[in-house]
Amino acid sequence: MFSSPDKIVIISMLLQVFLTFSVMIVMGRRRFAAAREGSLQIHDFKTMQLNHAPEQVLLASRNFENQFEIPVLFYVVCLLAMHLNTTSWFFAICALLFVLSRVAHSVVHLTYNKVRARFRLFLLGCTFIVIQWLALAVTLI
Known about the structure:
The protein is mostly helical and about 140 residues long. It has helices spanning about 5-35, 40-45, 55-65, 70-85, 90-110, 115-140.
């Protein structure tokens, strides 16, 4: 049913979904820990006004939100390429490299949070998305 590049693309999308859920778990654990320690109160969660939350909570929340920004372009290009039967090994490898860059970005963001390293990983991931969109466009022209 699916060609080998399609399988790699699907696995890449599944890994991105797994990353999103993993970040959600980290975020939840950090929020609950902050509530237990008293740095967040239950009423803070009613309106999600967490501006005064500890930095680790804010980082996890921002990283989780980030999983619904650039990765949306990843899901769209992957689904569109599979639907149009234009996936190739090059496209599939770019998909996998995008997800690996996202994993590395999240690890940096959620641990030592060096802005330069994080930004470079973000740009790397964006580069793979642009390449995927260009590859799709070239196959359609």
